[in-house]
Amino acid sequence: MRKREASFTLLFRHWLKANPMRTAAVFELKQTQTDSFPFKNVEEHQLEALAAAWGPEGLIYKISDQSQGYKPCDIVYFRLSPAYIVIKYPKFFCLIHASAFGAEMKTSTRKSLTSERAKEIAEKVIELPKKTVKRSKE
Question: How far is 9 from 6, CA to CA, in rounded Å?
Fold first, then answer.
């Protein structure tokens, strides 16, 4: 995992722990360094897995025995569970239900999701604190 991705994953985990969901949920984390997120960055198999998790058939996922570190269980199963694309833009991150993301991807005339439009279709928007710039002493 790249450092940038690892950093956002950690940030999201902390946010989720402080703001627990009412039920089990599934998240696909993405990020962009601009105010636009290319739709092509979410692959078809990812949307299919998210759709299965919120659908009646459910999503069964086997956690690899080859994975490093702590392994809480062998298999997880999600059915009728909220499923989100979580996109980190430079100033915020947002939780967009996978069905809303898929609909936007199919109907948009654009090839990407602007940060403004993401805020409109998101179920939750979390503003990030502004970074403070340390001034050097002169």
Answer: 5
Question: What are the residue ranges spanned by the domains of the chain?
Answer: 3-65+72-127
In order of 16, 35, 114, 136, the CA distances from 26 in angstroms are: 12, 24, 23, 44
The amino acid at residue 60 is: I
Helices marked H in the chain? 3-18, 44-54, 98-107, 115-121
End-to-end CA distance of the chain: 40
In tens digits, the chain (138 residues) has pLDDT values of 456 667 899 999 999 999 999 999 999 999 999 999 999 999 999 999 999 999 999 999 998 888 777 888 999 999 999 999 999 999 999 999 999 999 999 999 999 999 999 999 999 999 998 875 555 555
